[in-house]
Amino acid sequence: MCGRYVLSAPPDEVAQQFDCDVRDNFPARYNIAPTQPIAIIRAHEAYEKRHQRLYQLVRWGFIPEWAGRSKNNFSQDKPLINARSETVLTKPTFRNAFKRRRCLIPANGFYEWKTIKGKKTPFYCTPKDQPLFAFAGIWEVILDPGGGEMDTAAILTTHAGADLAEIHRREPIIIQPKDYIKWLSADERDLDDIFPLLDAAPAGFWHTHKAHPDVGNVRNDRADLVERYVPPNEPPEQGFLF
């Protein structure tokens, strides 16, 4: 899964990478957490403009469209930050969004936790050769209790590949630049072209190292959280720190 991630790239770099207009002057964020605003890149909703990419801020924590018509407090109770790619087309919660409202979620890396000697230890995971990349995402718009619109999103995950399997059983899906157009513009008639993109990254794609334990507190948002962390009084480890 993916429960915290990093977007430290400046707005102009995001705009260039994803070929879209970014007007927000957002700061570097090193500990993005569920329910917070996140950046997504999506296709224009008008069919004739479907190849045009739009930048948007949404809430991280997916809410299906039908939940907006319900009286329960779906938006606040256990936000759906991830969606399993294996069931995204069969679960009513995610099905319509996967068919019609896929998005790219810009990131520079993410955190995952592994239990070592009874203690949860955070790891920072980032591509070896892609400083800025895109999670595969889905988004939805609902009416909030006040009658306004609220946009939400989730990150798609799959079984962990060779690089991350020792840390966690699942990993977020990455969409490569060559597949941006396909991911964003394909409609429900083209799903056979989409499913091959839902695999784990190939072996050698990810670099991982222990991250600063302060990342566990959402109030901490510092650049040093992503640096290789060596606990006090412990010698530095060699290579990847699993």
Q: The biggest beta sheet, please?
A: 5 strands, antiparallel
The CATH superfamily bears the name SOS response associated peptidase-like
Uncertain segments are none
Quickly give the structural class: mainly beta
| Number of separate structural domains | 1
Number of helix segments? Answer: 4
Morphology: globular
Main sheet strand line-up: 2-1-7-8-12
Task: Based on the coordinates given, report the CATH architecture.
Answer: Alpha-Beta Complex
Radius of gyration: 18 Å
Instruction: Look at the structure and give the mean pLDDT.
Output: 90
* Strand percent estimate: 25-35%
Helix content: 10-25%
Count the beta strands.
Answer: 12
Can you tell me the CATH class? Alpha Beta
Could you name the CATH topology? hypothetical protein yedk fold
* Distance between the first and last residues' Cα: 17 Å
Sequence of secondary-structure elements: EHEEEEHEEEEEEHHE
Brief digest:
By secondary structure, this protein is mainly β.
Secondary structure elements and their pairing?
Elements: E1 4-7, H1 11-18, E2 29-32, E3 37-43, E4 53-60, E5 82-84, H2 92-100, E6 102-107, E7 109-116, E8 119-127, E9 133-143, E10 149-159, E11 170-172, H3 180-185, H4 191-194, E12 206-210
